[in-house]
Amino acid sequence: MSAEATNPGNPGAAGRGRGRRRLELRGLRRIGRAALLGPAPRDGLPHALEHVAQVHRRHHPDAALDTLARAYLLAESSHRGQLRKSGEPYITHPLAVTLILAELGAETTTLTASLLHDTVEDTDLTLDQVRERFGAEVGYLVDGVTKLEKVDYGAAAEPETFRKMLVATGNDVRVMSIKLADRLHNMRTLGVMRPEKQARIAKVTRDVLIPLAERLGVQALKAELEDLVFAILHPDEYATTQALVLEYAGRPDPLADIAERMRTVLAEAGIDAEVLVRPRHLVSVHRVRLARRELTGADLGRLLVLVAEDADCYAVLGELHTCFTPVVSEFKDFIATPKFNLYQSLHTAVTGPSGEIAETLIRTHQMHRVAEAGVIALGNPYAPTDGPDAPEGERADPTRPGWLSRLLEWQRTTPDPDTFWTSLRADLAQDREITVFCADAPSDGSDATDGAAGEAIGLPAGASCVDAAYERHGERAHCCIGARVNGRLATLATVLHDGDSLQLLMAPDSAAGPSPEWLDHARTPAARLAIARWLSGSQEPAVGPQGPAEPPSGPSPAGRPAPDGESPAAARATPGSVLAVADLPGAAVRLAGCCTPVPPDTVTGFAVRGGAVTVHRALCPVVARMAATGRQPVGVRWRGAGQGTHGCRVTLMAEAFSRPHLLADLTEAIAAQGAAVVSAAVEPPHEQRVRHTYTLHLPNAAGLPSLMRAMRQVPGVFDVLRAGRVRQAAAMRP
Length: 734
What we know:
Blueprint: E1 5-6, H1 13-16, H2 31-36, H3 50-59, H4 66-79, E2 83-84, H5 92-103, H6 108-115, H7 119-122, H8 127-134, H9 136-144, H10 150-153, H11 157-171, H12 174-188, H13 195-215, H14 219-233, H15 235-249, H16 254-268, E3 274-279, H17 282-292, E4 301-307, H18 310-323, E5 325-326, E6 332-333, E7 346-351, E8 357-364, H19 365-373, H20 402-412, H21 417-428, E9 433-438, E10 455-460, H22 465-473, E11 480-485, E12 488-490, E13 501-506, H23 518-521, H24 525-538, E14 543-544, E15 547-548, H25 568-572, E16 580-582, E17 588-591, E18 603-608, E19 612-617, H26 621-628, E20 633-634, E21 636-638, E22 648-657, H27 662-672, E23 676-682, E24 689-698, H28 704-712, E25 717-722, H29 726-732
Parallel strand pairs: 4-8, 9-13, 17-19
Antiparallel strand pairs: 1-2, 3-4, 5-7, 6-7, 7-8, 9-10, 11-12, 11-13, 14-15, 16-21, 18-19, 18-20, 22-24, 22-25, 23-24
Helix pairs in contact: 3-5, 4-6, 5-6, 5-12, 6-9, 8-9, 9-12, 11-20, 12-13, 12-14, 13-14, 14-15, 15-17, 20-24, 22-24
């Protein structure tokens, strides 16, 4: 974009004299030149726009081109006199970006905005003028890809620009489509820049733009961007991989023979199919070489079978598995369960006559268009679909995919640019996504539709039940007390896998909250930020596996909205609502959920943000951590004589030898003591030992010792501990 612009007196000759290796890659090449060297103008189109128009008409035969012509003339006049650092007229850049999008099937509005995408940033043209001449829709797309000025934002300009683009993409995914095409052309022409600047741009492309291309399903752009980044950041490996590909280029291709045999098999079965050999791009070849140590000719490509209907895909699969030897472990069905980026295909692998393994993709022609171009192949997803030009079949709505909703949610609560930039890269680094079927029915009074059974939610690979809870319920997940995974009780730390069925157990008491250990299990930024905000506003400094959690922000640090004029901590607890009082006048007091203190426990308190005091048992591990950070304790005491004559909540852990009916016997013993079970969790047996954890409500705190004795008398139970001793007990387990 603007970094490529220069004035006529400085054509960038120094950069062109470096003799950098040209990147010879597949895909759309030399499009800037092609756009300027098209055939003679017709239909009143400018000469330079003719090639773009031809490509656009292939995808949209009835497209009106007068708007494109007007956009080109405005862009050319606005950029007139500007040169790129390569010495070419600057207008070649928006033309090249527009041709990339036209090749992928973008509709006219997107192409109009791509022609104008640098005018507001690099010329005297204003956004209001763009809106006046081309409408609010084009103006929105141009504004979405316009960079923020470093003069105004300083070092935060780049992360804040990406934040702005993400927010704009949340309303219109075409914003990011234009940005990806813009970055692709800039990467193709990056050789004129200094090596250090090439590396910086390539790293941002690798960390942010390539994952975004993957999430939008634009594989054609992603593959070429990966190769361009590979050449800049890993030139030696790039050269080695390129040499291997050239070495095999002169040898017979085993995939060609297998493809010919497939054509014969499918023709004899009466299936109309097109079988193609698809070469892998260089990064893909490099990954295969690392995984398999040695390459064969069949590893340099894959077979692609294209058919007309979904049912034909499965017919092809049946014929191939009948007439070839399949590699069963390689089969995946992304038609029945599409990927989060709209990708659909059947994946399989078959063995050729000489033992070569041929990876094979089976898809319809429409699936292939979406696999290559992602959301761009859907045209204008916001256009009415009930007219005569409405597409056949149901069109997926890309306006707010799950991953984008998650990004938008946590970016709103992360005003700090550095934290946002770090969290964005970490989130995009999760290059796989899983689908979990959430069948929970909340017991906290929410409406039935929110707990509808079988709703699919997308999560990054490696996500836990904690992440699923915050994805499913937002900040109401603070009240989550357990889960069932595939019908079995599981801890919130349980890592989920693709296709798991999940039931989240919600506490009816809205005063429940997350424990610090949740940060150890949270993988998504949304979950980590929500937990950190709640802990910082109610309990203790949050420390996760990567160190201190991101700093909280926003007007309401707690996990729930506070009444007007009240601090968040005061909204959760008032001095009269608990059994303890603090030596801090006017402070709201709450009992810590990590150790659930009850009278007559020895307790201590710590002041937290919002003017509240959190009460912990003196032996709670949190107390030592708080003291280690320099936090000064606040004196607290139980109300009255501390005899525990009021109801309270406590968490107990029962260590036992595993046996049938243990859970029922323990529950019966608890009920006999008059205690109510708020939540229960059972860990998987380890060496015939099992741990049950119960959060209980006692009508009288004085009954706690007798309750613990009753639980110890249950056959098989060898110890019952308070929550504050859980860590020590865990350390003693073999």
